[in-house]
Amino acid sequence: MQRFERAFVSRIFLCTLFCSSLFGCESESQIERTVLASQATKNRTAEISHPKSNVRRLTRTEYRNTVRDLLHLKFEENDDPTQALPPDPVIDGFDKRAAALMLDGALLNEYLQAAIEIADRAIVTSDLTQPPVPTERLRFEFEDIPLHPYEVTTRPWAELKENGLVLMSGSAGSKRGLRRNQREPMIPISGRYTIRVRAAADRGVRDERALLRVWRPEVGQTLHETYVDAPLDAPQTYEITLPLNPEGADSLVVIFVNGTNFGQANLLHMEMNAAVEQALAAGNPRRAAQLRAQMRAEGVIATSRPNPATLSTAELPRLFLDWIEIEGPLYETWPPRSHQTVFFAGDAGTNDVAYARQIFRRLLPKAYRRPVNDAEIEEIIQVVTKELEEGEPFTEAVKTGLITMFCSPHFLLIADQLDQGSERLNDFELAERLSYFLWSSQPDNKLFELARTGTLREPRILLSQTRRMLDDVKVDALTTDFACQWLKVDEVDRFAPDVELYPVYARPENARLDDDLQAEMLGYFREMLRGNHSIAHFLDSDWTVLNERLARFYQIDGVSGNAFRKVALPSDSPRGGLLGMAGFHRWGSDGNRTKPVHRGVYLLDVLLNDRPPLPPLDVGEVEPNPPGENLSVRDRLAAHRQIPGCAECHQKIDAYGLALENFNAIGQWRDTQDGEIRNWAARGGAPPIDASGELPDGSKYKDFREFKQLLCEQEERFVQPLAEKLFAYALARRLESRDTRSIQAAVKHAEQHGRTLRALIEGIVQSEAFQSH
């Protein structure tokens, strides 16, 4: 049978399962009629509404993680078949809401396509003794770079040596030097590869660490960034292992990210150009002429071009490149672990139906997250048997069984079973809810065994398992899934900063700064969980999580390297807690100026779970400064509040946003207004920032630090909203009045155990709402 025919059989079987399990069809003929009816209406989207509100499908993240843990099959970010599934709808900030996670015919087909690709990756049908593409190591020596003589001799930014290439600016590529041969590309198949660069650096007169970037030009992808600290007389090898795919890439380029920009002479000349403009704006042409003369004497023939004849490169930073190599594709084992998981007893060349039955007797309970009966196993075996009867190899027949399993509602759906009117979850349902709360994946063997013995719900054991799971690496899903959605991390960079107003964003070494802002927010939550810190640290702390680039952006010394780590903050730093993060402030800006109202709404929604209602459609934005005026955003917002119908909403919002005005549109600290226009001096000087205010309860603050202190003194205003957010995420539904007692119990448990994030999670798991339908 051809693949598309098997896929059609799988789809029919899928529809059959849905009809029988969700709609209670009583006979085979009734099932067939339902299936045929669904096929006849393929031009109409017919949403499958579940008869019970506590039924939902797996989210895309949960689906991917469940497949990963079930088959030990890893998906790379740029080569993940589940990414073809549509994004999950978001309600009240989270994508787990059962009311939105339903299935329709189009989505069923998407799941079928994903299942086919997953099965193809999980099971090897070629030679089991060796991979189809062997691992190879290919190296390109930079002294062999195919440059014309003039490209080195007439360019002051490159020196070709006998043992490599020295860059003072720009980049060098491998061209086609990393191809396996003329027929094969550099990346023959998708997989994991290791890239190594042997390099060294001279910091030059600026005493600035050299930043090296490995770039894949054909697809516009940064593969690696690292600071090169090795001196010129002792080069070192810098490497990274990452997933790559064959998309039109036959070369790698190494970029000296923060090398001297010969198009602008250097940073000193940039500053001098700015000084010339300021002198002219201030009506001092004599000073402007003096600065221009100085620049000409130093080798600048225009405002942005150096004169090669007079410009000295002796003291410029240098990056030495010896060679670059790529090794791969890399295999942890062969055949892959997923294949060995399926064919646990070895020999995949048999046509033994009994072996297939053993395979699915092992897989189905884990896939369905509960014990299965013989009839459920036989449903899959019937599909496998039919494939074998039609002459398909055993591996292909088992593949079709896997596809059928992945398309089953028992795999796709989380459906609580109301046992004899009981409101409590049974142990298997409890294990499922716990694992999808903390891991966004299926229960592991330990949880499954405790559920089988009926002991998981015992308070002592449940608490012990919760703590075990919080210590497991899979709990990072709580960061990448819950925290990412709670803090709206993916929306931080929705507006690109205006680089003319905020030139720090134009610096080449800051090209990935937005990634760092997001990484700080997620890394902070990760450290809160791992370090068992007080929940109050979400509001204020004497530490944060930084790498070198973000530390430099915050003007914090002593942080080296790209890796994020916990960093103690100076006593006078405004950073610390979520409110001190540039990402927090970027969300409430438009890339041009700050938006205090947006920031206030964000704070109320995210931290206090008290999102204000949407404004009327005809209200409009805070206006820019009219000609001749020099008003701060705060002053213009005060005028905006005079519009009829605006004052009531702004009374609740504005104080929370105006308290953050010392942070500009990119999250850097400021004492005077910036953004919007390039030259505030021409308008008489930028107005000072006034970050004072009064909260709706009458509490007053004079600046940002007092505002943070006020929030910390009202910590209970944050703890319960955080509990509500976690409950809504864990239960996958909107909270109701019946949940109030459980929320209060979880908060009380946290207060009795150090008021930490882990203690709050423990209280949630122990609650009645978490353990009930």
From TrEMBL:
Q: Where is the DUF1587 domain?
A: 56-123
Superkingdom to which the source organism belongs: Bacteria
Q: Which residues belong to any copy of the DUF1585 domain?
A: 697-770
What is the name of this protein? DUF1592 domain-containing protein
Q: Where is the DUF1592 domain?
A: 425-556
Lineage here is: Bacteria, Pseudomonadati, Planctomycetota, Planctomycetia, Planctomycetales
Q: Where is the signal peptide?
A: none
Name all DUF1595 domain ranges: 355-412
Annotated DUF1588 domain residues? 575-672
What Pfam families does this protein map onto?
A: PSCyt3 (PF07627), PSD2 (PF07624), PSD3 (PF07626), PSD4 (PF07631), PSD5 (PF07637)
InterPro entries given in the database record: DUF1585, DUF1587, DUF1588, DUF1592, DUF1595
